[in-house]
Amino acid sequence: MFSSRKLERATYDSVAFRFIAANQHPDHDTIAAFRRRFLKEIEGLFVQVLEVAREMGVLKMGPVALDGTKIHANASRHSALSYEHAGRIEAQLKVAELLAKAEAADRADLPDGLSIPDELARREERLAKLAEARAKIEARARERFERERAEHEAKLAARDAKAAATGRKPRGKPPPTEGPLPADQINLTDEQSRIMPVAGGGFEQCYNAQAAVAAGSLLVVAADVVQAPNDKRQLAPMLGKLAVLPEDLGQPETLLADTGYFSAANVEACQTAGIAPLIALGREGHHPSLSERFAEAPPAPDDPTPVEAMAHRLKTLEGRKLYAQRKHIPEPVFGIIKSVLGFRQFLLRGLDHVRGEWNLVTMAWNLKRMFALIPAT
Question: Count of CB atoms within 10 A of residue 368's CB?
Answer without folding.
Answer: 13
